[in-house]
């Protein structure tokens, strides 16, 4: 897992509203924790989860 992958996941989670957009330290820590946890999942699980989030976000008109 790279820092770039984690940052992309944080952006994805923030865009879909799963993680607060606040710049407060606690909220930043939570975003990093959630993204890091996702990237520790088995590859198939991580891919499925991220693809589902992207699909739901795209379906709602969020991510391009």
Structural write-up:
Helix 1 packs across helix 2 and helix 1 (3-15) packs parallel to helix 3 (43-59). The chain has helices at residues 3-15, 25-39, 43-59. It has 64 residues and is mainly α.
Blueprint of the fold:
Elements: H1 3-15, H2 25-39, H3 43-59
Query: How would you describe the shape?
Result: flat
User: DSSP strand (E) fraction?
Assistant: under 5%
Query: Count of DSSP E strands?
Result: 0
Radius of gyration: 11 Å
Oligomeric grouping of the chains = single chain
Main sheet, how many strands, which sense, barrel? Answer: none
Explain briefly what this protein structure is.
The chain has helices at 3-15, 25-39, 43-59. The chain is mainly α and 64 residues long.
Features:
single chain, 64 residues, mainly alpha, 3 helices, flat
């Amino acid at each position: 897992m790279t820092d770039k992958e984690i940052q992309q996941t944080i952006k994805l989670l923030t865009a879909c509203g799963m993680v607060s957009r606040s710049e407060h330290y606690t909220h930043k820590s939570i975003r990093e924790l959630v993204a890091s946890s996702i990237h520790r999942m088995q590859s198939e699980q991580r891919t499925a989860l991220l693809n589902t989030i992207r699909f739901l976000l795209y379906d709602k008109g969020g991510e391009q």
